[in-house]
Amino acid sequence: MPETRQLSPTPSAPDEPLLQGGAWLPHGYQLDSHSHAQGQLVYAAAGALATATERGTWVAPANRVTWTPPRFAHSHRFYGRTDVRLVAVPLDLCGELVDHPSVFVVSPLLREALLALTDKPERRPGAHRRLLAVVVDQLADAAEHSLHLPEPRDDRLRAATALLHEDPARPATLAELGRTVGASERTLSRLFHTELSMSFHRWRTTLRIHHALAHLADGMSVTETAVACGWSNPSSFIDAFTEVIGQTPGRYQADLRNRR
């Protein structure tokens, strides 16, 4: 169960409260698929979270924030002991942001604004609204940095990606996966590009980074994480992780400990 710090309902629809505030959630805590009449920002001040929709899965480590537009069905899963912050975005501000789920890098200013919005109750009328406008301005100008795994539609591609979801460390080549699911290497390569807009190598690297973030948040060492996620050695894992996340896995894990 959540260890609530300050979590309160925000009017969203007569039968649909949208929570705003903060809580500590245990590793593996999950919120099943739901939607809101307003938009929602979810920030893991410590830990990490995955947001899943029909379009795929987005992962946000502790230096990123997720955005879900109004009426977009989504679910959340949290990794490591997570200090989650929930911020409702009224409809009149949602138009300033992208119309699809996304993930943005959290600047120092944005982090402090999100913490201020969720740490304490509003003391002066309109204070939260003014601060939320600053948050939206920051996000409207920010580039998207989505650790996004799109959801395939083709049955053969779905079968191939399912095998890798089950075992991210699986060393199979695209040709080997094709033989397993009944498709040629050329066909699968084309499907990765046309349906998922990325190469097989990029998709599998992103999948492995998703799992690496979960393992690191749960306290697994860098070396153990590299092996569990399929890298041949810790150095190649560190290089891939740093390129995608913007910091080494060791630095990322140290930041998690400090934030707790």
Automatic annotation (TrEMBL):
The keyword Transcription regulation applies. Keywords: Transcription, Transcription regulation. It comes from Streptomyces luomodiensis. Residues 158-255 form the HTH araC/xylS-type domain. It comes from the Bacteria. Transmembrane segments: none annotated. This is AraC family transcriptional regulator. PROSITE patterns: HTH_ARAC_FAMILY_2 (PS01124). Pfam families: HTH_18 (PF12833).
